[in-house]
Amino acid sequence: MNTWTAVVVTALGCYAVKLAGLLVPAVALERPLVRRLAALLPVALLAALTAQQTFADGRALVLDARAAGLAAAAVALVLRAPFLLIVAVAVAVTAGVRAMAG
Questions:
Q1: Are 69 and 94 a contacting pair, CB within 8 Å?
Q2: What is the largest CA-CA distance in the chain?
Q3: From CA 52, how far away is CA 58, in angstroms rounded?
Q4: Is residue 65 a contact partner of residue 101, using CB atoms and an 8 Å limit?
Q5: Any residues with CB less than 8 A from the CB of 81 and at least 6 apart, and which?
Q6: Angle between the N-to-C axes of helices 65-78 and 32-55, in degrees from 0 to 180, rounded to the nearest 10
Q7: Residue 36 phi/psi, 5° resolution?
């Protein structure tokens, strides 16, 4: 399969998924279970992306400065710090651990 075939197949697949979402009847989307799952889906996706970016290097699981930054951000979040402070703490801790290691 060449690159353009892969691009076209992917584009068609994305269009089909969007079309399937538009064809779902409104009555099905108003069910309480569907509404609750739709509300939780972005949180689950963000958590999965965060875990993948923090603990993987593309081939294996790793535990490095990114994990320390995530842990520091979690502590700041538990202490109810403002969002920008949480990000700053995570960046500072990650940079500090990398500076001490290298």
A1: yes
A2: 58
A3: 9
A4: yes
A5: 89
A6: 140
A7: -65, -45
Amino acid type, 80: R
Each residue's pLDDT tens digit in the chain (102 positions)? 789 999 999 999 999 999 998 998 989 889 999 999 989 999 999 999 999 999 998 888 999 999 999 999 999 999 999 999 999 999 999 999 999 987
Q: How far apart are CA 74 and CA 61, in angstroms?
A: 20
Cβ contact 72:89 at 8 Å: yes
Q: Which residues of 45-58 are buried (b: 16+ CB within 10 A; e: fewer)?
A: eeeeeeeeebeeee
Tokens of 36: 């609750």
Identify residue 41 by its one-letter amino acid code: L
